Amino acid sequence: MRADCQVFDVRVRCSAATSGLRQVLLGAHRPARDARAMNSVTTAAEISTLLDRYLLGLDDEKLDDAWARALFSDDARVEFPMARHEGVEGLADWHRQALDAFARTQHLHSPAVVDLTGDERAVLRANLVSTHVHHPGTPGDPLFVAGTLVRGEARPTERGWRLTDLAFRPVWTTGTPPRAGDAR
Known about the structure:
Elements: H1 16-25, H2 31-60, H3 65-71, E1 72-80, E2 83-86, H4 91-99, E3 102-109, E4 113-116, E5 122-134, E6 143-157, E7 160-175
Parallel strand pairs: 1-7
Antiparallel strand pairs: 1-2, 3-5, 4-5, 5-6, 6-7
Helix pairs in contact: 2-3
């Protein structure tokens, strides 16, 4: 060995995703198991995207029946501490009425943790910070901000995976919450 070279003991720790890649590169992979793992990763991403699209839809103000049907099962339930809606029928209108209390909103969330419980059910969790801007002239603080834990369930339907249950539990709030009759 040359005098200007050094040898280092290198140990590499891999995540589950890169560990699978390492197994493929080293020829130690198991195709059936790898296919199941890839399918569950794809399914988890599809379910996580439902939450992404739901929250972005709240801020884009494009809430219609097509939006609701693209995200929720026919028997879906959405629950906030102050209100609850069951069924996809009327769900978009219910959201529009609730959001009318604010001039605008912004919903920022963590990546969803999706746990698949077999082929027919998934559970998801995420943290959410929702900023609600009051209409000009509303008494109190101009903003109402809530840190929330989101929990949900999804199942496959003939239209693909859909949310069946979505519940929001506030962890903290600041500012002036909406009052009954604040909708415009």
